[in-house]
Amino acid sequence: MKHSFTSAASCGSVLAVCAMLFVQPGYAAQPPAAPASVQSPKAAAPVDLTGQWVSVITEDWRWRMVTPLKGDFANIPVNAAAKAVGQQWDPARDEAQGEQCKGYGAMAIMREPGRFRISWQDDTTLKIEADSGTQTRLLHFAGTPPTGERQLQGVSQAKWQSPPGGRGAFGIGITRVGNQSNTLEVATSRMRPGYLRKNGIPFSEDAKLTEFFDVVREPSGQEWLVITSIVEDPKYLNEPWVTSINLKKEKDADRPKWKPTSCSAR
């Protein structure tokens, strides 16, 4: 706050009034205002991601609906080291070693065809369950995430992100749900090495995954979840691998379609 005093006399008047306030009864120092209550990530969520969602395969059908052949590295910017590892892929060996879930880690699970259930495990943790491979991801908004041994799904840190200007619409008649801070950004690291695709294309323990979750709604009210993913791996990729997938929200009547299946190496 700026103060303007036009003369020494006025300055003295102000000081005199201040002195009177401090000596007059009833003008005791007021306690500081209580801080505004901080909402939990669950309570502050600007958009509802919860519910059952089903994959809609509109792109990359040949790599998502069937297991690609050995040596099919198309559409992923792999380097020579990744190709050398991928050429050694042996699903029978993975099965014998109990590693049939290597293609179901955080790097690949959201691209699996199937259904996903999203719910709040607690006020600061969003849970994603996949019926394909019966996998579970935990997205931590606050606190210290679990450490220890590397896991298939890694450690995911989540936060709400304000959308940049001009990203208010996704096409004619389709709009983003919510007005601000409605993009969920998830950064995942500390993953146990596995496959970017089930045909043995590897990622290393240095790989990082960044995802952006956006909910959009059609005029009919149908909701879609668009997930944009960026994979970075200094060991096996020449550049970041960027993809996007679409999930359609199902109604309560569709919940019986949920059929968990075990991991398959083939």
In short:
The chain has helices at residues 8-23, 61-64, 80-86, 91-96; strands spanning 51-56, 115-122, 125-130, 135-140, 155-161, 175-176, 183-189, 194-197, 201-203, 208-217, 223-232, 241-249. The protein is α+β, with helices and mostly antiparallel strands and 266 residues long. A hairpin with a 4-residue loop joins strand 3 and strand 4.
Explain what this protein looks like in three dimensions.
- With 266 residues, this protein is of the alpha+beta class.
- It is 12% helix and 29% strand.
- The longest helix has 16 residues, at 8-23.
- The N and C termini lie far apart (69 Å).
Features:
266 residues, alpha+beta, nine-stranded mixed barrel, two-stranded antiparallel ribbon, 4 helices, 12% helix, globular, disordered N terminus
State the end-to-end CA separation. 69 Å
| Secondary-structure content class | alpha+beta
Please count the beta strands (DSSP E, at least 2 residues each): 12
Low-confidence runs: 1-28, 165-175
Order of helices and strands: HEHHHEEEEEEEEEEE
Major sheet? 9 strands, mixed, barrel
Shape: globular
Mean pLDDT over all positions = 85
Number of helices: 4
Proportion of beta-strand residues: 25-35%
Q: What is the number of independent domains?
A: 1
Strand order of the largest sheet: 1-2-3-4-5-7-10-11-12
The whole-angstrom Rg is: 26 Å
Helix coverage percent of residues?
10-25%
